[in-house]
Amino acid sequence: MATSRADVEKGGSSPRKAKQEPGKVPSPLYPQHEGEREWTPWLVPSILVANITVFTIAMYYNNCPAHNAKPGRDGQCVARFLHRFSFQPLRQNPLLGPSSATLVKMGALVWDKVVHGHQGWRLFSCMWMHAGVLHLVANMLSLLFIGLRLEQQFGYGMHTRLQFAGHIFQTLT
């Protein structure tokens, strides 16, 4: 007895299911509503990769074992098995990340440097900086769960504007 196997993920129907409405493609994450088009996310994954890359560069530049080699300095680096990528002692950064000096060198928001040092670029660079793994994970989960839906619902252009406006609002508050 031959059975037909349909690709359910791409919208194929199975013999047990009723026919779907024409033009309606099921989505594994979110149900597709009337008038929505099929979409492939690229903006949110790109932002996610960029954030992880910047955090990795910050951890490489931080180099906790080399900077905390002197005994009696606020404790040992956390996760020393990561060598150069190990985290600052919990007394210095409880979010498991680089030192505040490293974050400032890489572009963290310091209002004094923006206003008096004429470093307006910090208003934009701080969007990519994360204080630690916990901060990064929380933001990336929010980006995945909310950002993917916004990208699907409003499109790439509107989502980019919303994302940028949110960062500017966050920076100014």
Automatic annotation (TrEMBL):
EC assignment: 3.4.21.105
Its placement in the membrane is given as:
Multi-pass membrane protein
Q: Which residues cross the membrane?
A: 42-61, 127-148
In the record, what terms sit under GO molecular function? serine-type endopeptidase activity
Q: Name the residue ranges with Basic and acidic residues bias.
A: 1-10
Q: Which GO terms describe its biological process?
A: proteolysis
- Indicate where this protein resides in the cell: Membrane
* Listed name of the protein: RHOMBOID-like protein
The EC category is hydrolase
**What is the originating organism of this protein?**
Triticum turgidum subsp. durum
Which reaction equations make up its catalytic activity? Answer: Cleaves type-1 transmembrane domains using a catalytic dyad composed of serine and histidine that are contributed by different transmembrane domains
- Swiss-Prot/TrEMBL keywords: Hydrolase, Membrane, Protease, Serine protease, Transmembrane, Transmembrane helix
**Which SUPFAM superfamilies does the entry link to?**
Rhomboid-like
Q: What family does the entry list?
A: Belongs to the peptidase S54 family.
Q: Which GO cellular component term is one of those annotated? A: membrane
According to its UniProt record, what is one Pfam family this protein matches?
Rhomboid
Q: Which residues form the Peptidase S54 rhomboid domain?
A: 118-170
Say what the protein does: Serine protease involved in intramembrane proteolysis.
Region annotation Disordered: where it falls in the sequence? 1-32
- Please indicate which superkingdom the organism of origin belongs to: Eukaryota
- The main location is membrane
Gene3D superfamilies, from UniProt? Answer: Rhomboid-like
